[in-house]
Amino acid sequence: MKVNFRYLLTISFVTALGGLLFGFDISVISGTIPFLQEFFELNESMKGFMVSSALIGCIIGASYSGRLGDIFGRKKVLLTVSILFGISAIGSGIANSIPTFIAYRILGGLAVGGASVLAPMYIAEVSPAHLRGRMVSLNQLTIVIGISMAYFSNYFLLATGENAWRWMFAAEAVPALLFFFALFIVPESPRWLVARDNISKAHEVLRRIGGIRFADFELDEIRASLKGNQNRGTLKDVFKKRYSFILFLGIFLAVFQQWSGINVIFFYAPDIFAKADLGIDTALFQTILIGLMNILFTILAILVIDKIGRKKLLLIGSAGMAICYIIIGYLFQTGRTGDWMLLSFIILAIAFFAFGLGPTVWVVLSEIFPNKIRGAAMSVATFALWVASYLLTLTFPIFVEWFNTANTFWIYAVICLIGFWGIFKLLPETKGISLEKLEKKLVK
Predict the structure, then answer these.
(1) pLDDT exceeds cutoff 60 at 278
(2) DSSP class of residue 427?
(3) How far is Cα 144 from Cα 122, in angstroms, rounded to an integer?
């Protein structure tokens, strides 16, 4: 089979621009925290709520986007998502009251939740099995590029003065507009088209990706997996006993990716460095270093994920993060936060996440659910992911206040060790297996 790699890469990358906006939206808040705290006169608890407010939208968006994608198609919902990103960016930038600001951040969260479900799912559905890990990982690469773009943008927009935070949020409207127009070159998912009995169009999409033989073979597999199940799965179907193991596995991986503590660094990096007696300028510059390391190790993961496999990358990532958190906690406990060691181990923790949990969890989530329930099941797993992210982000300032920074990082280290054990015991390897064959393997 000769894959039209340029075409596959183009449609996968355009779809993954949803991930870029996802990364930008969740990280742009990090550079605005000192400004928001002063402008809105926030205490620690209110600061945690303001920072995490977008995640309320993420939870709602993740809950409904998979099912909406099943009803209207992946592409139409992604177009709607791009519009929501743009509205949220402008609205957050012009907000003058806490309720207005939170409302626009929740709107952006709806878009993030939708993109987090539909972008990896779409890419998995158009990719041949031997390239699927690499292609779906593009979504994580664009997420970390979006995170880095937010860090760069925040750093350079500092020069605009006391209203810098407004420009930081508004800057997201530019990639949102690009995403909207770029989506028009992306075809609908062939698996969604088959489920809608649009066989000829599905065949055309598959033919452009891998030729006639590939299209014929994939169509036969997709139709066989949907035989007798032409109606798309509902939420009730997802919770049937035969899907209980893969649903538990998906929720476990989704929650662990967030409770590993990584978004604490992405959202609160300048705040963490400030606790280490660094100024705002220096802290924001160091977040740029974090973003660059994130991109570098995500690219490395993309290069090896279809060779090493998903399970090994997850084990390496979770073990490495646990070790880094133990050392970071020790540095805060002993007061050694003013030298290079703190920055080094925070960057190393990011590297382990980017090599393991970052791309690989999204790949596995996009793979393990059967065709019939993929949209609804992805929504359930991603809903769990965003609830976990919301709780993590909301509680970090409170945990630091209650337990101190060192003990908080040690809590995350224990969670990483629990995650390592769960992955080692429960997760089968999924590399190089078609989505339909995985269904036969995982669903009894």
Answers:
(1) no
(2) P
(3) 19
Pair 263, 349: CB distance under 8 Å:
no
d(CA 29, CA 21): 13
Q: Which CATH number fits domain 5-442: 2.40.160.40, 1.20.1540.10, 3.40.50.300, 1.20.1250.20?
A: 1.20.1250.20
Residue 269's closest CA among 339, 349, 171, 352? 349
Spatial separation of the C-alpha atoms in residues 20 and 150, rounded to whole Å: 10
Three-class SS of residue 260? coil
Looking at residue 300, its amino acid is: L
- Residue type, position 232, single letter: R
* Separation between Cα atoms, residue 37 and residue 128, nearest integer Å: 48
pLDDT tens digits, one per residue of 55-89: 889 889 988 888 899 889 999 999 999 999 999 99
Is residue 230's pLDDT more than 70?
A: no
Nearest to 25 by CA among 53, 66, 44, 63: 53
**361 three-class SS:** helix
Rounded-to-integer distance, Cα 216 and Cα 189, Å: 16
Q: Are the CB atoms for 80 and 67 separated by under 8 Å?
A: no
Q: What are the residue ranges spanned by the domains of the chain?
A: 5-442
Of 8, 10, 31, the C-alpha closest to 127 is: 8
Please, are residues 78 and 122 in contact by the beta-carbon 8 Å criterion? yes
How far is the C-alpha of 328 from the C-alpha of 56, rounded, in Å?
29
Altogether, the residues listed in the chain come to a count of 444
Cα distances (Å, whole numbers) of residue 435 to 64, 215, 364, 394: 23, 15, 11, 36
Please provide the average confidence, as pLDDT, over all residues in the chain: 86
The confidence band for 108, taking pLDDT boundaries of 50, 70 and 90, is very high
Burial of 190 (0-12, 13-18, 19+ CB in 10 A): buried
- In the numeric block, the tokens 């969260």 are attached to 109
- The residue assigned the tokens 């999204």 is 362
Q: What is the pLDDT of residue 341?
A: 81
